[in-house]
Amino acid sequence: MVARQLMPHQDAKERARNFDEVALGYTKEQAIAEASRCLECRNPKCVQGCPVNIDIPGFIAQIKTGNFGDAIATIKLTNSLAAVCGRVCPQEVQCEELCVLAKKGEPVAIGRLERFCADHEREKGVVTPVRTQPSGRRVAVIGAGPAGLTAAADLAKAGHAVTIFEALHDTGGVLTYGIPEFRLPKAIVREEVDYIRQLGVDLKVDYVIGKIKTLEDLRGDFDAVFLGTGAGLPNFMGIEGENLNGVYSANEFLTRVNLMKAYLFPDHGTPIKRGKRVIVVGGGNVAMDAARSALRLGAEEVSIVYRRGEDELPARKEEVENAKEEGIVFRLLTNPVRILEGENMTVKGVECISMELGEPDESGRRSPVPKEGSEHIIDADIVIIAIGTSPNPMILSGSDGLKVGSRGTIVVDGSARTSLENVCAGGDAVTGAATVISAMGAGKLAARTINDYLMNN
Amino acid sequence: MSYTILEKKQIAPQVHLMKVLAPDVAKAAKAGQFIILRIDETSERIPLTIADFDAGEGYVTIIFQEMGKTTKQLAKMSDTDVLQDFVGPLGKPADVQKLGTVILVGGGVGIAPVYPQVKAYREAGNKVISIIGARNKDLLVLEDEMQDASDELYVATDDGSKGHHGFVTEVAKKILDSGEKIARIVVIGPPILMKVAAGMTAPYGVETIVSLNPIMIDGTGMCGGCRVSVGGETKFACVDGPEFDAHKVDFNLLMSRLGLYRSEEAQCQEDHNCTCRSGN
Ligand SMILES: Cc1cc2nc3c(=O)[nH]c(=O)nc-3n(C[C@H](O)[C@H](O)[C@H](O)COP(=O)(O)OP(=O)(O)OC[C@H]3O[C@@H](n4cnc5c(N)ncnc54)[C@H](O)[C@@H]3O)c2cc1C
Ligand SMILES: Cc1cc2nc3c(=O)[nH]c(=O)nc-3n(C[C@H](O)[C@H](O)[C@H](O)COP(=O)(O)OP(=O)(O)OC[C@H]3O[C@@H](n4cnc5c(N)ncnc54)[C@H](O)[C@@H]3O)c2cc1C
Ligand code: FES
């Protein structure tokens, strides 16, 4: 079997000190070579692993013959954020996991090929979409993250007049405020958003629903509403010392760095504490991003403290590998007990306890149990808590009747319908923190439901 | 988005009033809420209390003191200039009810945020006693407006240049000692003033409310940077507040967290001054 094409990367030592993109993308030759590995299965499994059902064998065949323009057109039939998905989707547990080649060796690098097509198109200039005949119906979309943007794009394509309301000053949701520049350049997010604007979608930033207007108001003003408000509320551990100066939620740390560009301080006005020894608590994508950002801000040592083992790390595998290469220290089977106070209410260190894996819990993962007497102290001046987020409750003020589950998630049926007529929801707001592509899948589903509703009412 | 400045004037040394055209915000605004603005692409997001608003004319008034880079830059702007972002109304509205007699205390630039509350408490049918204070008489803002809006107005200055020679809390204490039945005291001002006020009113058992001003970014509950400790529980001031029960607030934590970026701010100011000088 021909080996999988390696992704060209910025050198690990160098990139650990800059915010430029780490993965550089395939060349044309590499893309064609990689596409040629595809066996063109008669019954392709990969498509089943894609939450938005991209015609994967179709676009790969087009790459093989050098028809890159057709390839991106094929992708865009079902995915309006290809450049993003090609970069951040956890392909190893989706399409690539089901690739026949994965059984014997390495799967076709579907994600990298998707990225190649989108980048190739962007370099050549994106084709302006044709606008559809207006339907005369109006839809409000709340939140400009992947769920909201996808729903808006599909609804606009169906001819509905769509207005997106976004609380922050910029669009993209987590793509803009959470995922760092070195993994997802913001220029790319902006271009993807511009494409959606060209479809005729009206984007209103600085617009907090629940404050400036309520969901009830929007239900009156529009024919239907989609809620894509995400899971932006950071969880803290509730341990001693969490309010000390130098303890950040990953959301705050990443928002300062990404949305506010604190890495360009003082040219950009928002400051951030640049630690020497940084501890990041958690093992997901968010933790990896926070750790690698802290390193790029100049930290001498950055550790990931995670209570389970290597196999349980929920982050994308590629990002764990990148983090290791850059020199992030992994302190696995370790859990913080309290944060130690230094001078003037600053952080001095973290007391941790070692863990061992016990019986599997309800999630199927082996649950960690503390080892008695294994307490130890790790010095640190910055601690970043990346143990998860919950749905942002802001949307709920003034939306009586919207059914919400125990963890604050919005309750929907199999068609993305909420308990309120003409209101659908999807993405992290419904599932809790998940993935870009699942949020997009939910946005698509909701757009179909809303379209059906508008056509029948 | 962009938001036009309709009017801008200096109302005291280093204190400025600005009316900003933001019709949707003006329509939804209530006393006690705040906005977050961003001057341009590279600026910080800073929170400022809604000092007044006119839903009919579609503007929101803010009053701010020159503190650091952003507020100094804001002070240099003038009518017809535009702000890139102006988000609001954020935070919970003040819990204004008819209670009887209410004392509202504004210290320094805290006078501005207390002003809409004075009006709201009066409209709700309360007797409103207002106390305003500043370092000296030149720094007193909105004195006439406060006079008109209040049933009684007392003034205090640290240097005795006007009214009571001393702190606003001393005036409030005198009223409490006079035996007049006070249902609630609202205090807005520098954290140290709010802390002293909380300590002063505690023995009297008078409900005391403060409006907290921690460092914020989004103002929508998404970062937790604004967290404060109230009654031993962590709260996000931007969504759970900004008003809290003064007797439960950990003011030391608030003050310490407000100083978090002091060294970076100093650096930023130096840079800013340099650009200003070279621009002259
Ligand atoms: C640091 C980080 C790294 C990640 N890395 C990956 C990765 O590599 N791969 C992957 O697949 N997933 C990753 N994820 C997860 C992924 O980003 C999310 O699952 C996805 O963004 C969810 O999309 P969404 O549209 O549901 O919500 P969001 O992206 O959260 O967008 C919601 C938007 O709604 C706005 N909003 C909320 N409330 C209101 C309101 N009341 N009014 C108006 N607007 C409102 C918010 O401001 C926000 O912009 C990562 C997440 C983080 C935080
Ligand atoms: C809810 C709320 C309402 C406020 N209302 C008013 C008001 O009506 N009038 C007024 O003059 N001021 C108000 N403030 C304070 C005002 O936001 C700060 O003075 C301003 O952000 C300082 O920014 P700077 O760049 O000029 O100064 P910097 O040099 O950056 O900082 C000076 C000091 O201001 C504080 N500060 C800095 N950045 C922020 C931030 N992003 N958020 C909050 N505080 C910060 C810090 O304590 C800092 O030490 C309010 C603050 C809050 C949280
Ligand atoms: S300012 Fe970010 S949560 Fe309050």
Describe the protein.
The complex is a heterodimer of chains A (457) and B (280). Chain A has a 5-stranded parallel β-sheet with strand order 3-2-1-4-16, with helices on both faces. A 5-stranded parallel β-sheet of chain A has the order 6-14-7-8-9. Chain A folds into 3 domains: 12-124, Orthogonal Bundle (Fumarate Reductase Iron-sulfur Protein, Chain B, domain 2); 138-232 and 390-455, FAD/NAD(P)-binding domain (3-Layer(bba) Sandwich), CATH 3.50.50.60; 236-387, 3-Layer(bba) Sandwich (FAD/NAD(P)-binding domain), CATH 3.50.50. With 457 residues, chain A is an alpha/beta fold. In chain A, strand 8, helix 15 and strand 9 form a beta-alpha-beta unit. In chain A, helix 2 (28-35) runs antiparallel to helix 8 (110-124) and helix 14 (285-296) packs parallel to helix 15. Helix content of chain A is 34%, strand content 16%. With 280 residues, chain B is α/β, with parallel strands linked by helices. Chain B is built from 9 helices and 16 strands. In chain B, the strands form 3 sheets. Chain B has a 7-stranded antiparallel β-sheet with strand order 6-1-2-5-4-3-7. Chain B has a 7-stranded mixed β-sheet with strand order 11-10-9-8-12-13-16, sandwiched between helices. The longest helix of chain B is centred in the last third of the chain and has 18 residues, at 262-279. The two termini of chain B are 30 Å apart. Chain A binds chain B through residues 167-169, 177, 204-208, 211-213, 232-234, 236, 242-243, 245-246, 248-249, 251-252, 255-256, 260-261, 264-273, 344-345, 392-394, and chain B through 1, 24-25, 28, 38, 42-45, 69-70, 84-90, 217-218, 220-225, 227, 229, 234, 239, 252-253, 256-257, 259-261, 264-265, 267-268, 271. Bound molecules: flavin-adenine dinucleotide (2 copies) and FE2/S2 (inorganic) cluster. FE2/S2 (inorganic) cluster binds next to loops of chain B.
